[in-house]
Fold:
Amino acid sequence: MFSSNNVAKSSISPSFSAPLNSRSNDEMVTRKGTQFAGRAAQSEPGGNLRSAQVIKPIPGAFKRADAVGKGDRDVFKVVLTAAAKVDIRFRNRALTPITLSILDSQGKVISFGGQSLSQAVGRGTFKQSLTGVLPGTYFIRLVAKATAPAKYRINVTTASLSVPT
Structure:
């Protein structure tokens, strides 16, 4: 969400806790030979930059519970029209690590202070706060190598920053 010259402050604070106990809206339930599919409240996030799910509203808060696994990746698109503070709270509910990467508009992992903003998150919670993110298009990519879907929850909160004139 920023290049190394564009961000005033970044902080990363992992904290690990117990998983949440809830079911995905997309889980299939079979009863007496009949299959019922829960209707998804939101469309499936795309697996590439073109089909990425747009995070709205900005400024505001976006929440999603989903899963990724081998052959599946979820990509979310953030379009900032003003300088902003972006807070990401990510909870991996699976035993398999999920890699969370923040990408620029070209799909390249962003680095800050010589450190890449791509983190393998084990079971638990990962928080990242970015202050002074310049206007532009950014992506959050989630990938897991597990054959079974790895469930997660992601919250993205954005707030516009006032720039002194």
